[in-house]
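Researcher: Can you fold this with fe (iii) ion in place?
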Amino acid sequence: MANACSVRVRGVVQGVGFRPFVYRIARENSLAGWVLNAGDGVEIHVEGSEGSVDLFLRELFADAPAASSITAIDVAPAEHTGAQDFSIRASPSVASPTTRISPDLPVCPRCLAELADPGDPRFGYPYINCTDCGPRYSIIEKLPYDRANTTMAAWPMDERCAEEYADATSRRFHAQPIACPTCGPHYLLETGGEVVRGDARAIERAAALLRDGEIVAIKGLGGYHLACDARRGSAVQALRERKFRKEKPFALMVRSLEVARELADLSPNAELLLTSQARPIVLARARVTLPGVAPDNGELGLMLPYTPLHHMLFSAGAPEALVMTSANRSSEPIAYEDDDAREHLTGIADAFLVGERPIARRVEDSVARVGLWGPVILRRSRGYAPGAVAALPTSRPLLAVGADLKNAITLVVDGQAFVSQHIGDLESWDALRAWQETIRDLLSMYQVRADELLVVHDAHPEYRSTAHANELGARAHLAVQHHRAHIASVLAEHALLEERVVGVSFDGTGYGDDATIWGGEVFVGSVAGGFERVAHLRQADLVGGDAAARHPVQAAAGFLRQLHVLPALTSPPFDFPRRFGQALRLHESRTRTFRTTSVGRLFDTAAALLGFTRPITFEGQAAIWLEQLARESGPVAAYPFPFVDGEGERQGEGELDFRPLLVHVIEDRRRGRPVSEIARGFHSAIAAAVRDVAQHLCESRDARWVVLSGGVFQNALLLEEIAALFEHASVRVLTNHAVPPNDGGISLGQAALAAFAPAD
Ligand code: ZN
Ligand code: FE
């Protein structure tokens, strides 16, 4: 029996070898018809015997190319056309604004085999790629995704490449970045005044320099890296000094999965994450100590090679574990333009391995870890961006500009929320410029005019993102409170926009409704209906404003002042430095002292009491230190950290009282209890408080889910303890998986809440 149908496939299906794949399976099943790239995906018409059509549809779903990601397949009966064979038809030239841009892809096994095959025309060619692999987002200048609109436009194809490009049976059919050694770009090495040309020679020389302990700047997919031998302490130390990066851990790129296993404990899920298409940096327990790589930290950040160049470097004898850190000076965005890299990295790098293909936009490495409920993305960038992570019920274009730290932005077009790559901390001028560039870039890519936009920003009047959001010339503006955005980010990615939940948002800082500094907030409500704040950490003082976040003892001053008796802390075992006394005096005179409910500062206080009395050198350092310390202890009883729900007039003003918690921490420290046990008991107390709050409020407010978000929930030990407490509970826990629980997820939450704002 004959049958005809039309099929629409949506998702990431363009530029990933989807049409040749359809062509192949249609022919194998003796079907006639055609396939073409349409505005919002791929359109297919097939006709033939019913059995063949069924088989075709099954294979379409089951065997789709690795780089594709299907969100929907719609099949509808169609008229017979009498087509005689199957063809790939030319596409209408206008791309719809919601055409998905593929993230960058790691080099595929077949290209790797050709790269290593002396008989192959692309043997040893660092820009080898095909429709299954290679650059995408990092080379696209504008849509539609055609070679002329990429940074490969300057290299006309030679005959061989042009033939493969036009051949529907080839793996390189319409592979926009296709190139070979004859017609494509090359790498070269600059060192001292010398320039080494020829891909193989340049790469071999770079590998030799790395073996000798030198620091090499390497141009990758989305920017420059600084690399050195991770096992050579002196090289790592030199890199730290030259980069002004005191203690923040360096990520490593290792030759193979085997090397990764030697360096860290990898669970099967960690290995899946490490080898996933995004090839993120994966955090895992270290098995070895590499001096200077991750000081005072029990974890290592590891990634596998993902470009042909990386593989060639290791084959050429580069050390099997390389520090691979974003090329920038501390806290500046990653360098991605050649001149900029030379200017900024001279004095840091001993040599530059430079590729000729320009990078269209900076895309840093992503960072992730395996969590109990799935992967936790700590920095969402290369391999993930600019994928759509949520569908929102709005037809108006909407731009959410995020928070000032760990910034990423979200653009919503036709109800699709596209989250940008990680941009960074907007405090530096360069980062602010990168943020503005990213906004312009996404708007022009999706053909949205600024004056059509609803722009959503944080409620903080002094955020740079707020100030600049008001200069974009948007149609309308909306401010969204920070911690509500954290909770909404989780619900948006889980498509639970109407669900009534209890939301627990713990982080360092966010501007509150009452103009105090929030960071320990509990809400009830939904994205659709809004969130009511029903409880919070007991208020303490933040002495000296932002400086308190850099000095744990200063944070401690504002919290310990809340105790009935202020303990003596400048003597053993506490030995608080002079800064503590100064902070107390500031507090006395109420100078630059603010009210806060920050759980992040409560962690800093505990860290200070257990020995972290020096200033921190990167954000979150004291809390990470405390977590590592706690991991050295087995389970212990939780310290008391009572939740008191408001009654009568104080209905809806529940409070988590940290005073008994800190009193116990101080007493146990004084008694000489091992600090690791105290740190563990502190973590257990926070976990138990989350359970108490969730159980009580879910019951009294009729909710089934507790949603956790905010930077504090990056703490893996805390999440483990929470998971154990909820194992048999009727309340279910929901956390971030597509966007970070830290401020990198804020823009998605802003967008979700704004999608329900009354139309203006
Ligand atoms: Zn390939
Ligand atoms: Fe936050």
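Model: Folded with fe (iii) ion in place. Residues 12 and 68 are 5 Å apart (CA to CA).
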